Amino acid sequence: AQCAAGLRCFQRSNGETIPGCFGPGGGSNWDYCYDPASPTRTPDFSGEPDMAVMEEAAAGYCARAATHARSADTQLYYRFDPRMAMIENELSSPGGAKAAHTGECPRVPKTFLNADTCEYKPECTPLDYGDATITLDEETLKRWYETDRRHVHYITGLLPDMNNRICGSNVNRMSRWLKTEEGSCSEPTRTCDEPDPGSLIELSGGNDNSATDLAACTGECDSDAQCAAGLRCFQRSNGETIPGCFGPGGGRNWDYCYDPCIPQEHASSVLTAINSSDGAASPSIRDISITGPCGGALRGASISDKERGGCWRHVHPETGNVYDFSYWVSAHEGIARAEQRYNPVAAPAREGKAYMTFPDNICTYSRTDMRCWSDYKRYFQFVGLLDETLAFSALPLPLQTAGVAPAGAVGTRRAEGFEACGSPGETANDPRLPHSYGVRMQLRGEDTLFLHRPISDRENSRAMVHNNVAVYAPDQLRQRAAWALSQVLVVGADNDDDTERWLAYYDIFVRHAFGSFRDVLREVSYSPIMGDWLTYEGVRSRALSGKFPDENYAREIMQLFTIGLWQLQPDGTRELDGDGKPIRTYDDHDIVTFARAWTGFHRVAPRANIAQEERGNNNKNSIDPMRIEPDDRDFLPKIDLYDGFIGDGYPLCTDLPPRSFLRRGGTFVRRASPGEFDDRATDVLEPERGSPPPPALC
């Protein structure tokens, strides 16, 4: 309202460039009026009266400011429509187009669906920076935002609780110490002598929540403010011993004031442990284990190292961890409440800070306790420790960017290429078509607003897609056959607004409507949707879990999906035994046996180019077929319905002739490029072309 007609006020937070302007102005946080419709910053609207698509960034164009534009020819106003760009990655053209922001292809796992069409493509190989290293210092963390708009920070503000004590009887107890000052501590924890049993004070006091100036071993307190000067309130949960005190007190959950001093002997032990770990990953962080008496300093102590200099403070065991918070920028539940005018997760980066503060930048407005951290930290990608130096190649792939690559490190692509695999129906979206259906994105562009909401109701998107295809698709017979199959091999759809995963499951029936029922059953059985619905996803063998495997799918695949309860004649009538009674197709023993066949199924890793699920499942992949984990698989023989064994007809490994893998016809499948083998591949054979087999093989 303060700007002239047609202008807007540019709200700055860290000295951003004002479109059409130059100079420092009054300060990095001063705001200025600007022209949001300057022709030098708008797309070319020629030939597209309804929509314009920018194939590349226009000179001087600022996506943050120019959310509206005007065509000089038609004088029509256009509004910026942010949406995710999907990549064409069909079975017939795997890795056909690279992601614009990473220069890499979708990492679709190799499965029975795409194994025959995977191709090796050098252009899809991730950049290799060799032996280059990077230090996670404050300047590096800030540079990720400046060059790539990634929100990478170290965490501060976490409070150590009674589970994060300095020491204890458990030899595996770990405590974290952070170097906060170079000189002596400004407020070091007071040292004291270890109390002898005769000087302990008996617990006393009543249940007066308003009491103040409580003495040591007196309760019941709710906060440190109720204790006398220099004392703290010990919050108990299960009758823990109060330092310097004895006796049962008023109850196992009563809290008492205590003296938080640290015994001199223990302080020396802490410094010895800190100084003996000079080879630690981070020069400012030490994780140590101390056993023995703690005195009253159970948490939050500060100790000065007078010999080497520096102040070490006991902190929460995750303080100083570096995380990529980029996902949380868009997923933070408080953004909608703030109407996206203020994003607490994005604020530190915009303000030029390298740290993220708990709880202000992490939790919603109604949650500020440590449970908020334990609930939400699964959304943050762990990177390393503050000031830790690590290999650049060890960073998560989204952080291996040229903008933060170490000086002199040049990324090159391996000549042997990357095995790119396609996925059925993984097509690119057309930005010229209406924004009809919502797609959940893992990351949202910086300062993007959903100016164009999906036309459909998100919770009904999957039904609208199906209905539209079923009514208007030209292959009506295929669509009707697919519908019939979907009514047999059923799953339950939750009341969520996810669309793609449910449509991907339904597409199994569309693809195989005129094909083999065996192919349908195989894809359904490997589907993460079915694995979750009939509860065999993640089931392990009895040898590992100590209990019988889940029988749900073993029963339903026979009763509902295939043979049913009774043996049938060719005309559909039931077969009868000698007494004239119907013959069952299977019994409980068969179910128990078949349940072992559905062990070891796990989802594959999440990847790009597919919609993300609800936040609670954001680390899952519901599109690609599940994989079988050999270690979780029941390896014992399984008897079939006719007292034979599943797998009869295949040779046993013990029956194979010697060195069968070297005989003509032996097939070798390429699984990885050099340097990408898993930890179990300790010896890798690298024969020269045309050379005879090494003697060890013969």
Please specify the SSE layout and strand pairing.
Layout: E1 8-10, E2 32-34, E3 68-70, E4 77-79, E5 119-121, E6 127-128, E7 133-135, H1 138-148, E8 152-156, E9 175-181, E10 191-192, E11 201-202, E12 204-205, E13 218-219, E14 232-234, E15 245-246, E16 256-258, E17 262-263, H2 264-275, E18 285-288, E19 302-304, E20 311-315, E21 321-324, H3 326-331, H4 334-337, H5 347-350, E22 355-357, H6 370-376, E23 381-385, E24 389-391, E25 412-413, E26 418-420, H7 461-472, H8 476-486, H9 500-511, H10 517-526, H11 528-533, H12 542-545, H13 552-559, H14 588-595, E27 601-602, E28 627-628
Parallel strand pairs: 8-22, 10-17, 11-15, 12-13
Antiparallel strand pairs: 1-2, 3-4, 5-26, 6-25, 7-24, 8-21, 9-18, 9-20, 14-16, 19-20, 21-23, 27-28
Characteristics:
698 residues; 4-stranded mixed sheet; alpha+beta; 4-stranded antiparallel sheet; 14 helices; 12% strand
Strand content: 5-15%
* Order of adjacent strands in the largest pleated sheet: 22-8-21-23
Radius of gyration from the alpha-carbon trace, in angstroms = 32 Å
The end-to-end distance, rounded to whole angstroms, is 85 Å
Number of helices: 14
Number of strands: 28
* Secondary-structure content class: alpha+beta
Proportion of helical residues: 10-25%
Indicate the low-confidence ranges by residue numbers.
59-66, 336-340, 442-453, 674-681
pLDDT average, as an integer? 79
Describe the largest sheet: 4 strands, mixed
Based on Cα principal axes, name the global outline. Answer: globular
